[in-house]
Amino acid sequence: MRSTDTTDTTDLPAFPMPSPFPGEPPIAFAQLREEKPVARVRLPTGDEAWLVTGHAENRIVLTDARFSRAAAAAPGAPRLQPIPPDPGSMLNMDPPEHTRLRRLVAPAFTPRRIEDLRPALRRDVDALLDDLLAAGPPADLVTGFARRLPVAVICELLGVPGSDRRRITEWVDLLLSLTTHPPQRIAAARREMKAYLAGLVESARDRPGNGLLSQVIEAYDEIGGTDDEEVVMLAATILTGGFLTTAGEIALSIVTLLRHPEQLAALRREPETLPRAVEELLRYNVLTTGGGLLRVATEDVVLGGVRIRAGEAVLPAISAANRDPRVYTEPDVLDFRRPDNPHITFGLGVHYCLGAKLARIELEEALAGVLRRLPPTLRLAGDMTALAVHPGHLVRGLPELPITW
């Protein structure tokens, strides 16, 4: 395909783009994917980026080393959020530094270790639903369940005391802001959370246990030790990546099931099909403004028929790729019996989500608990059209989900 140089950047479409309903993609994604799968947009910061909406093009961006996360964290690079990315985060590194850090933390996230968490996770689900049922309808499924479950799981992994979890959620909310909070407040939240986590790391070093931080510290010590700043950044990465996204996915999945009563009824009849249903919900639901992390091209690259210059930003719209009709039959239909589901919700390549298995079992157990414990008369307590996502936020989760039964 012949490459095209695009130099006119006036009147660029603004990103993020509005969605017609929580969990649904922006209407503009379908047109862009068909006509311009790699298109210029203007980010909330005023910087420009190439928005990638096609499935094939997204796979390239996520796996080609010429699209760099480290370059996106460099001083002066185009950025999506109000403050620059922290270059000390594993998310903002390329191999070999990324490989070294991921290798240290990966043993705590093996499929077997994560599966071992399932019984405790199920108990957490039941305890939260006990509280919800005891209080009686109506209830807010977000504050009473969807947010409390993943923050409990992540904080237990890291050894965060229950009394400090509210602070953690506030910091994560701030750190994933696009336009809701001033840059100074977001930067302060980053400093506060890192200082707090430094105290946890120091405690884990003084009094080793079986938690994630102790495992990572032990792994570092086996290779000669290191500055605890890296351990702090690993903990911060796990917190910011593993709490709000899972909470948002749980709530959106409940909404999606209530909007598709025939699929909900089928799940109630055949609960053993839940893992496949979870995969379809992960494909179908649009949780973030786009879905992927911003990259910067390290050299000129032709992608989707356009030439991306070295130093230009590229934003993979994974949620658009997950609705690509070139890959999925009837992509806008929720189908729990979909035979082939190569969704890329958790990314691809070296930055494939470390917590993907954990997110899957959290979603499985959360939905299984709701189906098992809440009455079949479960429904929204109010007008579904009144539901709205967090404004100005990277994660387009629901601030509340009023339900009754």
From TrEMBL:
UniProt pathway annotation: Antibiotic biosynthesis; mycinamicin biosynthesis
Keyword Metal-binding: yes
Superkingdom of the organism of origin: Bacteria
Signal peptide start and end residues: none
CDD domains named in the record: Cyp158A-like (cd11031)
InterPro entries: Cyt_P450, Cyt_P450_B, Cyt_P450_CS, Cyt_P450_sf
GO biological process, one term: antibiotic biosynthetic process
Molecular-function annotations in GO: heme binding; iron ion binding; monooxygenase activity; oxidoreductase activity, acting on paired donors, with incorporation or reduction of molecular oxygen
Sequence similarity: Belongs to the cytochrome P450 family.
Protein name: Cytochrome P450
Organism of derivation: Micromonospora maris
